[in-house]
Structure prediction request, 215 residues.
Amino acid sequence: MALKVTVLAALVVVTLARPDKRPFFNDQLPSSAYSLPSPAPTYNAPEPTYNAPAPTYNVPVPTYNAPVPTYNAPAPVPTYRAPAPTPTYGTPAPVAPPKYDFSWALKDDYSRNDFGHQESRDGYDTQGSYSVLLPDGRLQTVTYTVNGDSGYVAQVAYEGQAQYPAQQPSYGAPSPQPIYGAPTPRPIYGAPTPQPIYGAPTPQPSYGTPAPLYA
Prediction:
């Protein structure tokens, strides 16, 4: 340490003794000699640096919902019952041949009604007759027979003579007389309808001549 101080002191002495020389110490000028002019500040404008953002995107994932199957339950199948058994008809029981006998008659002298009917049947053999009093005074009698497939066979007979009396004038009932009821009520007129009363006429606004305006 003492050696370094001694060397430094010697250098200082040499420097002071020879000012025309430029001693260097560790390649630096001593601060007591002079200072170099400050260099002009130099600067470079910073170049804009940027990195273009890389396009980022996500591929959309297709999303969908599977449709829910909807259906209606099928209608129940109708069930049919077995058809009712068809009745089987056996041999019809033998039927006895028809046999009957009837008659009826009506006679009224006041209304001149005289007619009747009589019929009898035994198997396929049918016989009968009916009669009616005609307006001309004769009695018409029809006798008929039906025997098997022979059909309807009729015989017509008349009793009495036809009579055509002279026509007498017939007087009908008198014409009905008009019936007069109570007289038709006459309209009753009340007090006359009041007429509207008009008052004095409404006065109309009157506008005078406007006064001139002078500035």
User: Anything to note?
Assistant: The longest helix spans residues 2-17.
